[in-house]
Structure formats: structure tokens, C-alpha cells
Amino acid sequence: MPEQERMVEAILFASAEPVTLADMNSRMPHGCDAGAAVRLLRDRYAGRGVEVVQVGDLWAIRTAADLGHLMQKETVETRKLSRAAIETLAIVAYHQPVTRAEIEEIRGVSVSRGTIDLLIEMEWIRFGRRRMTPGRPVTFVVTATFLDHFGLETARDLPGLKELREAGLLENRPPPGFGSDLDDQDEDELRDDEGQDDMFDDMN
Fold first, then answer.
1. How confident is the model at residue 85 (pLDDT cuts 50, 70, 90)?
2. Minimal CA–CA distance to 35: which of 17, 56, 20?
3. DSSP for 153-175?
């Protein structure tokens, strides 16, 4: 098992993206147990400068959360999401799997194809299973990239309304779908809205 831990450590250290247990097992000699090895490795790294973390069904080595400030660069390029994209992303995260029609019902306005395409291009949402309903509409779910970006193990770790309010991440305006007069034609103007203060507002 110590040798298996070394192999798992090498794989995770060299991988730019989180890795599945199946992928690790495929690289290791027959009979190895990547699952047991990675859990032992996680315990061994607990409290160190880097940690072994689980991201959905994937595993990765990441800088300890309390030391993240040491890794910041002096120049950071940010992209500001439109309000339509922020609301769409939040709906997918909290209601997944969710169809486009359900997103529009919650927001109260239509969702442009460009908004969905942008979030897919960013690899923050992806297509899920089709609903077994008339028309078999496709659903959307958040990705491991999204979870990794926000330091979440699963979507169940998303903060609740109480935590969002206490952190000052909810604005004093009606939630999407309750009398909002926003539409996707206003997206270009909303990209410059400096009043946004949302957990999904800025992307590095």
C-alpha cells in the first residue's frame, strides 16, 4: 500500500486536471486499489501546505485553502458575467438537473442561447440526461470544473440562503422570476453593472 500511495501521489501531482479513480487504476499495476490509496494519501496530507481533495467523483492535489493568498498574482484578469448568466448558473447549481424551460420559468424571462453556450464554453455547466417527458428535453448540471473553482466537493455543499445573506452575497432585490423586468436584450448593459456582488460574479 505505501507503494500504491506513491503511485497515486505521482499521478495527482502530475495531472493538470482532477483524476477519476478509474483513470488511476488504469495506470497502476493490476490488483492495485487506487481508492484505498488515495484515501490514505488524503489523511497523510491533512494539515499540510497542499491537500488531496475530492471534487465530485474526481481527485486532485490543491493548495490548502488557508494558504491560497500566497498563490495570488499581482495582475489578475477577470471576466464579469452578465446578470442573465449569473442567474442561469445559480439556477442550474441549485436546481440541477434542470431544463431550459424550467430555467426560464424560474427567471421569469427567456434565456438566450448565447448565455447557455457561454456557460458551457467556460465548462461550468454541461448537458445532463434527457427528461423522460414529451419532447425529451435535455437537462443541465454543473461540472467538476465549477465545483473545483468554488472549492466544493459536491453541489450539496453550496451555501444556503441564510449563509449567502450573512456573507453579503445576496442583493436587496426580488429573486429571479418574481416581478423582474430583466430580459436578455439588456445583457450588454448589465456586463458593466458594477453593483453586482454575487458568488458567481467574477471569474479568474
1. confident
2. 20
3. SSGGGS--HHHHHHTT-S-SSPP
